[in-house]
Write a structure and sequence with these properties.
Layout lengths: L5 E2 L9 H7 L6 E4 L2 E4 L3 H8 L11 H27 L6 H15 L2 H6 L1 H18 L12 H16 L8 H16 L12 E2 L1
Parallel strand pairs: 1-4
Antiparallel strand pairs: 2-3
Amino acid sequence: MKGVAATKVPVPYHDKTDLIAATGQDYIPALDWGGRVVPWTAIPGFLETEVPTPTLFPGGQVGLATIVDDWGHHQLEEKVWRVVVTRVAETFADPRERWVFEEMQTRSRGPWGVLESRRAEFLADLEPELSWIDRTLEGREWLLGSPSLADFGVFGGLSPLRLVGEPLPPRLGRLAAWADRVQALRAAGPANGSSGRHPVTST
């Protein structure tokens, strides 16, 4: 959205050697801005300083956007993750990645078969969160009126559903239309006249 040219560097789930060497830490996303490493939690504020237009905080709503973004990552995403975890394993092409993923998830969440058998329960637990987002979108296209960090944080929390092909509930039409708008915005690139002439970065 900010028109920053970026090179995406994939990080294998089972091998973060290159990531650690490049950034000094083992979590993604991480941003390398001309040799300056920015950890994922600091990326929005950093980009807002470096490339202030278009803003991630429309109307100066920094606090509200940050709260919603945090909710998207820590509450919504966790509930989504429980729904999709056994299906995400199928998306790994490398058997080593899949094995490490399943091993780590089993150790932290329990036996694979039990997780799969509880998917309906996990979906039911997720529904109120999805309904909350849908209600928030009544009469508006974006959570804070214009595209913002809030939209991207919530979309990120929901994105594992799209990864495994899990549809959003049909009754939540506003939510589905909003998700399509965020996806289209991401695909469209620079917004609001941003030139795209900014330092090349890597993630």
